Amino acid sequence: MKKINYILFGVIVFLGLAFFVPVIAQEEPAQITPEQVNSEAGAVSGFRSADTDELKTAFLQKLGSMMINKRLLSLKIINNRLEKSEKLSSEIKNRLLSEMDRNINGLNRLKDDIANTSDVAILKEKVKSIIADYQIFRVMLPQFSGLVAVDRLEVFSDKIVELRNKVQSKIEEVKSLDGNTAAVEVLVVVADESLSKGNESLQMATEKLFSMQASDPKNAISLKKESKGKISIARAAYKDSEKQLRTAISELKKIIAAAAEESDDVKEEPAGSE
Fold this sequence. Notes:
Oligomer: single chain
Largest sheet: none
Radius of gyration: 36 Å
Helix content: over 70%
Structural class: mainly alpha
Mean pLDDT: 84
Distance between the termini: 139 Å
């Protein structure tokens, strides 16, 4: 009898717990809202899981807005760099800035268009056009960034030429003191060779960068890679040229100091000594 009572008690307790404990595990997770999305991947995920056209539209609009804002921010950064460029000619700089403005204006118009479109199918095409029609990351930004890098290296090249002129002036000074500058002149020759190599590589990089076209993104990617390699070669060559010239200056200073010391020794030598 006691055994039966225990069994009945256990059944009653189980049923009571089942009644009062909420069945949380059976509830489906709440749908994330477009306002909660903070990444493009989140917007895409929200769109795929949305069960109404209204939600799909909201997620597509959020996705389009984020994609465009990211591109506008990148364009603004490159625009500032271009305006500060020192060596780019006015013609080239204006041409690039004009292309930049065209893309910025086009993206802003597309952003407004996406915000005011509610048809899901049309919205999907408009969002796709952000990538298809505005090759910002595959063409424009690499091209503009490369040209800014070229601009900075051209400034570096000019400074190396100034340094070389300084070295040549010092060589003439040492020669006037009957100093031996043969070893220093070898350093200058090596520096000149590196400078020429850098200038040649930089010119090739510039040509490749200007050949990049938004209408041919596949070829643009190849040109970007090639130009990057040429820029790296130019940078290394310029650094080597600068190093050779600074070594030359150091050696010239030693020669001048030695000549001055020898001159002092001659002055101090007693008259008539042999």
